[in-house]
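Exercise: predict the fold of this chain.
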Amino acid sequence: MQATYGTRHNKVEAILCDMDNTLFDLVGAKREACRCVVDYLGAGDPETLFSQFLRGVHGFEDHRNIRDYLEELGVYEQRTFEVCCRTYEGVKLDLVEAYPGVEETLRCLQDAGIRLAVATDAEAFQARRRLEKTGLIGYFEVVATPEVSGKRKPEPDSLLYALRRLDTAPAKAMMVGDSLVRDIAPGRLLGMVTAFAAYGDWHRGGVADVEADIVLREFAELPGHVGVPGR
């Protein structure tokens, strides 16, 4: 049985959440967006386009990945590139929806007096668009992105920024995320309670030397781990 971290001696006062694939399925939306781009082109393969974003050359959201793909296909033209980017962004945002139970769980935690923040590697405008689209933005007092913290995860800067804004010590806070390396490791480094969103781990690959305090099969399990009755 996993521990409950809402006891009088170890009370969680704040929860920091990763955003993509923790609050909603971004990878699924990206894959469908890639399929729609390939449909528009009438050539190529959706998974090959998706893999362009995983190379680490330009970044997970950078449109230059689409440009490189068009060049590899030999179909690059500025207008084609612009249409592909608009298609990709439009479809991706349209398909982003909160996982079942996320909004109800956030409301439950907020009503219990637990302060909430997002710590994400997404750019600020992307984070805001997705949180607004899913209707979740009003639950978070702070949205920490690399623009305000100065560094991307697994560096702990975004987590530290959110904790400072919430005026909460790491020992009184929890980090929730779908990546053992980018979310759980920096949370553990700071001495936070950590909750691994296993349901969003699309890599499906564990990291032996990184272990979370809690493993979540769904986001709705979170209240029970901080001593808050679920709904």
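Check your answer against the key: The chain has a mean pLDDT of 93.
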